[in-house]
Amino acid sequence: MRVSLDNVREMDRQDPLADFKRRFALPEGVLYLDGNSLGAQPVAAKQAVDDTLDQWRTQLIKGWNQGWFDAPERLGNLLAPVIGAQDGEVVVTDNITLNIFKLLGYILDKRQDERRIVLSEGGNFPTDAYIAQGYCRVSGNEHRFLPESGNLAEHLDGVAVVVLSQVNYRTGQLRDMAATTQLVHAHGAEIIWDLAHSAGALPIDLNGAGARYAVGCTYKYLNGGPGAPAFLYVHRDHLDSTWQPLSGWHGHTSPFAFQADYTPANDISRFRTGTHSALIYSALEASLSMWAEVDMQALRDKSLALSNLFRECLEDIFAAHGIEDLTPTASQRGSQVSLIDGENGYAIVQALIARGVIGDYREPGLMRFGFTPLYLSYEDVWQAAQHFREVVESGEYQDPQFHIRGAVT
Fold first, then answer.
1. Given the residues 170, 175, 212, 220, the one annotated as active site
2. pLDDT tens digits along 289-298
3. Whether residue 102 lies in the annotated active site
4. Dihedral of CA 332/334/335/339: which sign?
5. pLDDT band at 240 (very low <50, low <70, confident <90, very high)
6. pLDDT in tens, 63-77
7. Are the C-beta atoms of residues 178 and 209 closer than 8 Å to each other?
8. What is the DSSP string of 40-97?
């Protein structure tokens, strides 16, 4: 170990974000390094859901006129500063998969040229490509893959829309949003950014980067809860009268007029579909209200410091035990550490979980550890690294119970 416990405790004493940890309901004895899959519960979320349950009980249907109906836009405005957007450019609705489908249809309907190719990235989280394939199947457009580690500029001829993740879910590789957006636009294409692994993990400046379209989820770093709705961003200059293909009644310009024909709303509300859950929106609103207090640069600084600490504590054992560190350099990574052990990765993660250190596993052989600065301390990360070392050096992961395949946390 290169870092002492005294060192990390001093780091915690100097941490400007340290007070946020008390605002999360973390289980006793758990070191949670899986916020890149599901964020921890804010303390305020339970009261917010309880309040909505009380509102449902006492106000019944009147609740829709007391904050439920306009929650997608209200929460969108709360989220906008976190991702570098403005009021009226973000709506919280549905999930990433559906929101990509909406944007594909919206963008392609606006195009006046012959470009009809949708480009997805190889090695990305598969739902982005799945829904692009499904959209192309029903619309008659062509779907292609950007080869993993391929040169994007070489694959843009004839492309109408590119769907890219800002942070790769496997490796944590961070793309330069501004440069990539400029490249895609210069080739006459549009880009949909997937912010699933960057929103709430690092500063994002959609407006400043020239981004026109983006989607993301709120249940990871933004701590909205399991099944929390996703969000969709469209730059204000690209909101017009064009339809998006999932034309539900909440996206109608006058949803309660109950007209026979559809007319899209003239703002971001056109990307809504149908009725949402007031309960899950209330939990998310409790979290997003807290995010208004977060210094995003301090968040980024701590994120990198935490992941650096974890790797520094373990770097001497990786080669000796056949573990490959895929984590990019600090300027090119999100907020996770990615390690590969094709033979033992699954068992190592399960052994850690048995000790209360929660990371996650993805085939083939990938161990991911997410660093969420609002509720992880430096001592938490130091202790997690200690457990990792003990599991590997002792051979504890070789216990047959840790090799039984099942649902992976």
1. 220
2. 999 999 999 9
3. no
4. negative
5. confident
6. 999 999 999 999 999
7. yes
8. PPBHHHHHHHHHHHHHHHHHGGGGGGTTTTTHHHHHHHHHGGGGT--TTSEEE-S-HH
Distance from chain centroid for Cα 398: 33
Residues 371/208, Cβ–Cβ less than 8 Å: no
Q: Would residue 221 show up in a list of annotated catalytic residues for this protein?
A: no
Q: What are phi and psi of 7, to 5 degrees?
A: -60, -45
Residues in the chain: 409
pLDDT, one tens digit per residue, over 6-18 is: 999 999 999 999 9
Identify the CA nearest to 345 among candidates 330, 324, 328. Answer: 324
313 backbone φψ class: left, alpha, beta (φ>0; ψ -120 to 50): alpha
Active site residue 194: yes
Residue 240 is among the residues annotated as catalytic for this protein: no
| Beta-ladder partners of 340 | 324, 366
How far apart are alpha carbons 213 and 275 in whole angstroms?
Answer: 23
Choosing from 219, 310, 346, 378, the catalytic residue is 219
pLDDT digits (tens, 9 = 90+) for 371-400: 999 999 999 999 999 999 999 999 999 999
Torsion of CA 11, 368, 332, 373, to 10 degrees: -30
Say if residue 222 is exposed, middle or buried (CB neighbours under 10 Å; 0-12, 13-18, 19+). buried
Q: Which residues of 246-259 are buried (b: 16+ CB within 10 A; e: fewer)?
A: bebbbbbeebeeee
Catalytic residue from among 102, 175, 272, 368: 368
List the beta bridge partners of residue 194. 165, 215
Give SS3 for 23.
helix
The per-residue pLDDT for 407 is: 55
Q: Which helix (H) or strand (E) holds 398?
A: none
Tokens of 132: 């692009």
Catalytic residue among 15, 94, 194, 360: 194
- Whether 231 is a known active-site residue: answer no
Rounded to whole angstroms, the Cα distance separating 202 from 374 reads 12
Residue pair 377/12 in contact (Cβ under 8 Å)? The answer is yes
User: Left if phi > 0, otherwise alpha if psi is -120 to 50, otherwise beta: which for 84?
Assistant: left
